[in-house]
Amino acid sequence: MSAREQILGWVRAATADVPDPIGARGATPVVAIPSPGAEPTLRLFAENVADYRATVLQCDAAHVAERVAEALTAAGCRRVVVPSGLDPAWTGAVGPGVVAVPEAQAGSHGQLESVDAVVTAAAVGIATTGTIVLDHRADQGRRELTLVPDVHVCVVRADQVVHDVPEAVARLRPGPDGLRPLTWISGPSATSDIELSRVEGVHGPRTLVVVLVS
Question: Which residue from 7, 129, 130, 141 has the fewest beta carbons nearer than 10 Å?
């Protein structure tokens, strides 16, 4: 007996007591998924982001700058790099003693090492996995901006938060044109050794703060 015949035999045996033919069991159940930005989606997103040991700060559009400044101050940041396309209102008052460094002035790895944090926007947030995705448009900056500084403050709008990964991919890849590099971030950078000892900040920021804007 071939492997194929053996597998098909198992399938026939497993379904021998099912009298209904294929297609006779009615319509396939459809699971209702909350729309992007709906309250259940946002609540699940915030819970899963926090479960990764990241910090979630929620606010309305008028208070983004306050939450960003709060996050930077709490982390003890003094120099923060700002992508060229970031909304200037978000970093207009980054807090006393904090210097905003334009992306153009942090062009080398050495210059990036001299800053404490980066503030970016996001492309998509995924509720079921607590993941934020960057596609590195102007408001998110080039990829190394979010890999070298020790603190990443990411502003995510409610309408950017979708329920699951397929929805996120559909948004990120609407067609074959204009494809961009993606960075998927689920909590602060971390890894574990063979004894499962968690080490943070190995290949990216050890502190992640997500400002969720409703």
Answer: 7
Q: Within a 10 A sphere around the Cβ of 8, how many other Cβ atoms?
A: 11
Q: Within 13 A of 173's CA, how many CA atoms are on the CB side? A: 8
DSSP string covering 62-114, please? Answer: GGHHHHHHHHHHHTT-SEEEE-TTS-GGGSTT--TT-EEEEGGG--SHHHHHT
pLDDT tens-digit series, residues 170-196:
899 866 666 788 999 998 877 766 666
User: What gap in Å lies between CA 111 and CA 149, rounded to an integer?
Assistant: 10
Facing residues of 100 across strands? 80
* Cα distance between residue 45 and residue 169, in whole Å: 16
6 Cβ partners below 8 Å, 6+ apart?
A: none
Burial label for 156, CB within 10 Å (0-12, 13-18, 19+), is: buried
